[in-house]
Amino acid sequence: MNRNTQSRRQFLRATAVTTGGIALAGCSNSGGSSTDGDDGSGGDGGSEPTTEASGGAAQTSTVEMTDELTFEPKSIEVTAGTEVTWKNTGSIGHTVTAYEGKIPDGAAYFASGGFDSQQAAKDGYGSGQKGNVPKGESYSHTFETKGTYEYYCVPHEMNGMVGTVEVV
């Protein structure tokens, strides 16, 4: 009986593999670029220390976008005024797209590609992969308003590529 039991991670990997043709369609490491002028070098190339905050969120301002279709860490905590950088450490493109209804009132909307709404980001990606952050590049946003921000990757949302930024 244990032979048929899969861990959640094994299931998600299997699902990603079997739906890969659909989920990864349109994802590439070409076309599209970071709109913030970042060359993707990430400064000194070193890693920022990550510590765990209350509630399981990591205290870091760097999030990796991976080939496992995850934001790593999935949940972070930063202080108001912090610039968060999402680095694509994988070989396929990803987006960073805020859920418009899941950001604090009065907060600036954010999405790779510089879109001003969730629908514009989805439409932009659907018509030419606008907002795509290719392999080795990054996207950054400064969080000024305290509260919880939820975001996702447009082409990989159905694979569970979602994340949270808690601004304290």
TrEMBL record:
Cell compartments where the protein resides: Membrane
Residue ranges occupied by any Blue (type 1) copper domain in the UniProt entry: 62-167
Example GO molecular function: electron transfer activity
Keywords on record: Copper, Electron transport, Membrane, Metal-binding, Transport
Extent of Polar residues compositional bias: 48-64
Cellular compartments per GO CC: membrane
Residue span of region Disordered: 23-73
Predominant location category: membrane
Pfam family, one: Copper-bind
Bias-annotated ranges (Low complexity): 26-35
Xref: PANTHER family: PLASTOCYANIN MAJOR ISOFORM, CHLOROPLASTIC-RELATED
Protein name: Twin-arginine translocation signal domain-containing protein
Species name: Haloarcula limicola
